Amino acid sequence: MKENIEKLRGRGLKVTPQRLAILEIFKRDRTHPSAEKIYKKISGKYPGMSFATVYNTLSKLVETGEIQELDIDPDKKRFDPYTPMHYHFYCKRCKKVYDIDYGGSFAPDIKKIRGHQIDSIQLNFKGVCEDCIHQRGGRRP
Amino acid sequence: MKENIEKLRGRGLKVTPQRLAILEIFKRDRTHPSAEKIYKKISGKYPGMSFATVYNTLSKLVETGEIQELDIDPDKKRFDPYTPMHYHFYCKRCKKVYDIDYGGSFAPDIKKIRGHQIDSIQLNFKGVCEDCIHQRGGRRP
DNA sequence: TTGGATGCAAAAGATTTGCACTCCC
DNA sequence: GGGAGTGCAAATCTTTTGCATCCAA
């Protein structure tokens, strides 16, 4: 709790119960949830949370670098609160996003390419995840 | 022309004027166009092309591997007919997508990670492109 | 001939916006 | 007190779908 308050203050954002609830979700949820999933999780326990606030807060958190927006799910935006360098695997069948730890196999510290200023890098793998391959119930999103 | 006909036949797809028009666009357009941009370009010269057909054809071309769907523009899907291994840079300001040639700096030939079957890999860089940095009219999408 | 393609318009999703109200600092 | 944040609903934008018609093989 205190931790989340500090995160917001540190980013220059006002502390509100809605924002704390969203950060709390991220602390437990490593599934790279979409805005809708976050909204549903919260509105279950915390009535009086609107879509607008979820989107609003998420974009503030992305802007300030507290979380990252992933471009990996072709259907919707996914969000990741885990900021150390790592990659992602997206299962086309169950739509789960897995973290892939950074193995140091390429140079992610590039700051410029051909005159373009680089702010972020995403390495995305797509395919079928182990659970889905073995049909262990990983098939449903 | 003949080239495009062969591409479709080779993929087991029926040859229609609409599909040829779309392939023709890709032959000239290296801007990684979205479905809407393709639709607009064609409906200018070729009235009687519907959105449905554009989406339909694009998904067939993606399914068969003739083109690639990029997850790099947070707003919409972009398509790339250039299939050799390469990466992409997305300018947050002008929304252009640039090809970045593959320099062999990491191993893109992985077929499996932790039991997950890998079908495709995308390495995406995001930031501000050279034109936008120097405000050479690259700012408008 | 015949199943795949197309066109149209409506529908479905995801995300954004306008605006009045609220409450954090 | 003031401005950022919130809630609600409507709007926007992208993509999908249903279905009748059409046409390439």
What do you see in this structure?
Two copies of one chain form a homodimer. In chain A, 35% of the residues lie in helices and 23% in strands. With 141 residues, chain A is an alpha+beta fold. Chain A has two domains: 2-70, Arc Repressor Mutant, subunit A (Orthogonal Bundle); 84-135, Dna Ligase, domain 1 (2-Layer Sandwich), CATH 3.30.1490. In chain A, the strands form two sheets. In chain A, strands 4-3-6-5 form a four-stranded mixed β-sheet. Chain A has a two-stranded antiparallel sheet with strand order 1-2. In chain A, strand 3 and strand 4 (97-101) form a beta hairpin. The first copy, chain A, binds a DNA duplex (25 and 25 nucleotides) through residues 13-16, 18-19, 34-36, 48-53, 55-57, 75-77.
What's the overall geometry of chain A?
Answer: globular
Which chains share the greatest interface? A-B, 34 and 34 residues
CATH topology of the largest domain in chain A: Arc Repressor Mutant, subunit A
Number of helices of chain A: 5
Q: Strand content of the residues of chain A, in percent?
A: 15-25%
